[in-house]
Amino acid sequence: MMQSRAMSLIEAATNVVVGYGLAILTQILVFPWFGIEAALHEHLAIGLAFVGVSLARGYVLRRLFELIRVRGTR
Predict the structure, then answer these.
(1) Residues 52 and 32: beta-carbon distance below 8 Å
(2) Dihedral, CA of residue 20, residue 22, residue 25 and residue 28, to nearest 10
(3) What pLDDT score was predicted for residue 41?
(4) Between 40-72 and 5-30, two packed helices, what is the crossing angle to 10 degrees?
(5) End-to-end Cα, the chain, rounded Å
(6) Running DSSP on this structure, what letter comes out for residue 32?
(7) Are 66 and 3 a contacting pair, CB within 8 Å?
(8) Which residue spans traverse the membrane (predicted)?
(9) Measured between alpha carbons, how far is 48 from 34 in angstroms, rounded to an integer?
């Protein structure tokens, strides 16, 4: 069964949202180990800087693997 482009985007977005939450939590826990002090709003801004890249990466990789899968079934 082929995954639609819309479902690829939804999957990638869900992955990014979950990853964003984990990244914020990780930053809050790990930054102090390296002497990096950041307020919550700074953690959120840092995380948002990577959201677009993560979303695009997830979508492009999903579409690439879907293309490989479709070509492999021919």
Answers:
(1) no
(2) -70
(3) 95
(4) 140
(5) 13
(6) G
(7) yes
(8) 12-34, 40-61
(9) 21
Q: Extract the tokens encoding 3.
A: 């995954």
Closest CA relative to residue 18, chosen from 46, 42, 57, 47: 47
Q: What is the distance between the alpha carbons of residues 74 and 71, in angstroms, rounded to a whole number? A: 6
51 exposure class (CB count in 10 Å sphere: 0-12, 13-18, 19+): middle
User: How far is the CA of 40 from the CAs of 23, 45, 56, in angstroms?
Assistant: 12, 9, 25
Neighbours of 65 (CB within 10 A): 12
